[in-house]
Every structure is written in structure tokens, then in C-alpha cells.
Design a protein that fits this description.
The complex is a heterodimer of chains A (192) and B (343). Chain A is an alpha+beta fold and 192 residues long. Chain A has helices at residues 18-21, 24-38, 79-83, 125-129, 155-158, 174-179; strands at 62-64, 89-95, 108-116, 135-137, 152-153. Chain A has a domain at 62-188: Alpha-Beta Plaits, CATH 3.30.70. A 3-stranded antiparallel sheet of chain A has the order 2-3-5. Chain A has a two-stranded antiparallel ribbon with strand order 1-4. Chain B has helices spanning 2-37, 53-63, 74-90, 118-139, 143-174, 179-185, 192-195, 197-210, 222-225, 235-260, 276-302, 310-338, and strands spanning 100-103, 106-109. In chain B, helix 1 (2-37) runs parallel beside helix 11 and helix 4 (118-139) runs antiparallel to helix 5. Classes of the chains: A alpha+beta (192), B mainly alpha (343).
Amino acid sequence: MQSLTNRSKVVVKKEMTFSERIYLPAILGGLRITLKHLFKKKATIQYPEVKREMAGIYRGQHVLKRDENGAERCTACGLCAVACPAEAITMTAAERSKGDEKLYREEKYAKVYEINMLRCIFCGLCEEACPKEAIFLTDRIVPTDFKRGEFIYGKDKLVEGVNNRVDVSIRQTTSVAEFKQVPNLQHNRLSN
Amino acid sequence: MSSALIFTTILIIVIFTITLVIAMYSTYGERKVAAFLQDRIGPNRAGPFGILQPMADGVKMFMKEEIIPDMSNKWLFILGPCIAMTTALMTSAVIPWGNSLSIGGESYSLQVTDVNIGILYIFGVVSIGVYGIMIGGWASNNKYSLMGALRASSQMISYEVAMGLAIIALVMMTGTLSVKEIAAQQSGGNWNVIYQPLGFIIFLVCAFAECNRTPFDLPECETELVGGYHTEYSSMKLGFYLFAEYINMFISSAVISTLYFGGYNMPFIARFISDPNLLTLLGTAFLFAKILFFIFFFMWIRWTIPRFRYDQLMNLGWKGLIPLSIANIFITALIMWLTGKVS
């Protein structure tokens, strides 16, 4: 079989030579290696002050988008929950009552929408499945907590604020943007 | 007479302080060296460059809850760290920290006491150091502690033999047991390491074993023995054990520098500087530079090579170093006889 790196060595079980047995040359070799590391560039990132640059397509904490009028886009169709391989998403649908047109875009909305952040594997399939462009993964990191229950995020944490929108355009690569220009997907466009 | 006494008292206090400060900053240095060798930065939050980290650690140690296990032997439990700390600090008495200072026409030696059996004194004190670990491990009434203590004591006793034999060759060469004499004989770059390279390597390896430093840190290997002999210790008693280890490291470095690397002697400098006091202080600074290098070397080794297995440790000690040091004695004797130093 051809090796991948050409760096593999055939192991031979042989008697150690004298210089190998006294161990000191090996120690000196090791000391040389560690001394080199003394002067190497450090890998540390001083976290709270300096933040590591994330990949443009980083998939972090989810957001439930509102449309340009501030109404929730999610219609509780359940496609995200079906698509979710980790079964992290649960929801309860409800019918929009009169006078709530400002709050929910369509007649059906998600009364309860929960994502278990401990189950979620951040694969982004929910985002892909969503026909209403309601759920997106963002570049935010899910914060730590002391209790498991706290990791089940409800609508209070998932839905973006009306005046506090979450930018999801970072993840939209050119190919994604092009895909969204396909005419028969027009109803999915952001500017509905 | 009384002025000499005052000077000695001051010297003791100064050495005591320097020892403690160096041991304190060795903990900081260890973390920094470890970090740098692993491409990290290390502690840098407490003060500039993390320089206050040892204080923070010290405060932490004092604030921790003091736990004495119910089934332990209380007096021995307290005695253990005391012995470890005391013996660690005692050794520095016979190390010549410099030549002599002349103040007001009188000359004072920068050595607390010039015992004419200084090397034996060092060995005696180091041997008592084993008791600190042994008693602590035994009194804890914990099998991990006991295992750690057993390992520590057998390791230290084994390596003391080879260490002593390595020193015998040196003593044969220098013809004295006084540490000051040995240091003085090495003036002018006439370092003992040139004549005793094998003896030096044996001594160095044994010094690592005596200090329970990697690769001989079996008594306290976390992976096998939880914490070794100090598993049950908490608060400042644990701090004492850890601190004693760093003091031992400092003292070992001082002993190595003095016995094999010329001590306070600076080659070539005496030609340029005529003031003897300045020369003495420079020599002391030079000695401390050597000591700091060896402390760094201890840490450098620690973060380079892995730990020995216990049987490998014993093999190396009894089958490797002891025969080698005996051979070293014979070679030294043979060369001394051939060169006509002894009749």
C-alpha cells in the first residue's frame, strides 16, 4: 500500500546500540527540540481582549428571524425539526388570533419553539430545511451554564429583537446568494 | 568577635530571604518555562507579566481549608512538612555564597559556617529530608500516600549511594571535605567538571532523583498515585511540601555550581577589577547566574522527558549509576597515581 505522507518507518526490533542505551544523546536531542520551542511564536490568543477570527461560515447559536415589519417569520411547519439529525428542535404550533398580524407574518405561528443546545450538533440542516428563511445559524457562541435545563433555549432567547436584529448575512456566501436568486424561490427572498 | 556574629546573623537572614524568594519565583518560573516550551504564554494576569502570581498562589494556599484526616497520626502529620521545610533550608549553611567582604578593615566570609566536613553535612541533611516525606506519607493513613512515601524513600536512598560515590571521586581529587576549600581550588576557570565529567553527570542525575524532579518524580506522579505522599495534605502544609521541593532545587543547583562549576570564582575578571569587595559581589552574582541556569535546566528537563517506570528507575540507580560511579572512583585513582599526585 502506498503511504500517504512517505514518512512512515518500518519498525525493526533490534538490540539498542550503546549510545541508545545510555539515553543521554536522546535526552540532548529532546532538549534541543524543547529549546527551539522556547523561541517559537506562541499560539495563545489572549481571549477576552483578543478574539479568534472565525470562519465566515461558522455555525453558532441559532436565531429566529423577523421580517422587515418585525413580524416573526416562523410558521411552525416543523421542517426544521424533521430535518434535525440530533432531534434537538421541538415546537408547538398555534393559530394567529385577530390583531396579532403585526407579531406573526402568517396565520400559523410557533407558540413554543425550543432548541436543546446540548443536543444540537450545529450542522445547519434546520437552516437549509426552512422554507420561510426563519431560522439561521449565526457566528455567536452558545454560552456555558451550570444547569442542563438552561441549555434548552426557548423563543425568548432565539427570536431576534425587533430593534436588535442579528446579522445573518455573514454566512451567506456568494454561491448561497446566487442560489437565492433562482426565480422559483422568489417567495423565499428576504424582500418578500 | 561580636561584629562577626552580627555579620553572620545578617548573612543568615539574607540567605534565608533569598532562598525563599528564589523558591517562590521558581514556581512562577516553572510555569513560565513550561508554557514557553509548549508554545504558550503562561501566567500573565497577576501584575505585569504575571509577576505577582506567586503572591496570589501563596494567598490561595493560606486561605484554603486546613484538613487533618481523622484517622491520621496528627503530630506526625504536622511534623512531616516541618521536617521537609527545615531540612531544605538547612543545607544552605555550608555553601560559600562568595569570597570574603572586607568592611572596616575586617574581612567577613560570605559563608555562614565553614564546617570542614561540609559535604558530609550536606549529605546528612539531605538524608533527613527523606524523613519529611516518609513521615508525611505514613501519617496520612492513606495507601496512595504510603506508596508515594515508600517510592520516595527507596528512590532517595538508592540515589544517595551513587551520589555519595560520585562525590568520593571529587573528594579524592580535591583532598578536602570543606565546600569552601573545593570552591577556592577551582579559581581561574579550573572547574571540577573538566576533570570529573562522568562524576558530574552521575551527580546531576542523582540530584534530579533527590529532588523528586522529572524524570524521577515517581513519588508524586498524579497519574498513578493521585498526589503521592502529599495526597492528604491541604492548605499551607501542602504549600510547605511543594515549597520544600523548590528550595531543594535551588540548593541542589547551588551545590552543583559550587562543586563542579567553580562556585563564586570568575575566570579572567580579577585582572580588570582591583576592588576586592566588588570582585566578591560580582563573584556572588556569577554564582547566582549559574544557579539560575541550573534551576532553568531542572525545568527544561522536566518539560522534555517523560517519567521513568519504577523498575527502570531502580535499574538505573543500582545497575547503572552505582557501578559507573565506582568505576569513576577507580579511574580517578588510577589517573591520580599515574600523574604522581599520590604516591
